[in-house]
Amino acid sequence: EVFGRIMVEYDYPECTTAVIMGLHLFQKYYPDYRAQEIRRFKDRAIVYIRRAQRKDGSWYGAWGICFTYATWFALESLACAGETYANSERVRRACGFPLSKQMEDGGWGE
């Protein structure tokens, strides 16, 4: 059946990143509110983001131009965890992905 699993919800880098970023910003203003619980959530979410990265450095997403869009979001998650181009092989691989997809006219596409 074509639509057999259409109502099943999945994990997405975009949604996970949106929550990580929201909690990261929230903690700047309210650092003591449920700090341990939020830290545990963020740690688990970052593990998911790390595991979801593909060999080419990208992430598979569900919205927009799925790989480019999800990679952009996943990089935001890693930045919230303190990962940068300088200290993370994962981030360096991720940065290589969009560079490999730039079109001749300067724009991006897959």
TrEMBL record:
<dbReference type="GO" id="GO:0016104">
    <property type="term" value="P:triterpenoid biosynthetic process"/>
</dbReference>
<keyword id="KW-0413">Isomerase</keyword>
<dbReference type="InterPro" id="IPR018333">
    <property type="entry name" value="Squalene_cyclase"/>
</dbReference>
<dbReference type="InterPro" id="IPR008930">
    <property type="entry name" value="Terpenoid_cyclase/PrenylTrfase"/>
</dbReference>
<dbReference type="InterPro" id="IPR032696">
    <property type="entry name" value="SQ_cyclase_C"/>
</dbReference>
<keyword id="KW-0677">Repeat</keyword>
<protein>
    <recommendedName>
        <fullName>lanosterol synthase</fullName>
        <ecNumber>5.4.99.7</ecNumber>
    </recommendedName>
</protein>
<dbReference type="InterPro" id="IPR002365">
    <property type="entry name" value="Terpene_synthase_CS"/>
</dbReference>
<dbReference type="GO" id="GO:0005811">
    <property type="term" value="C:lipid droplet"/>
</dbReference>
<dbReference type="GO" id="GO:0006696">
    <property type="term" value="P:ergosterol biosynthetic process"/>
</dbReference>
<keyword id="KW-0752">Steroid biosynthesis</keyword>
<dbReference type="Pfam" id="PF13243">
    <property type="entry name" value="SQHop_cyclase_C"/>
</dbReference>
<keyword id="KW-0444">Lipid biosynthesis</keyword>
<dbReference type="GO" id="GO:0000250">
    <property type="term" value="F:lanosterol synthase activity"/>
</dbReference>
<comment type="similarity">
    <text>Belongs to the terpene cyclase/mutase family.</text>
</comment>
<feature type="domain" description="Squalene cyclase C-terminal">
    <location>
        <begin position="36"/>
        <end position="110"/>
    </location>
</feature>
<keyword id="KW-0443">Lipid metabolism</keyword>
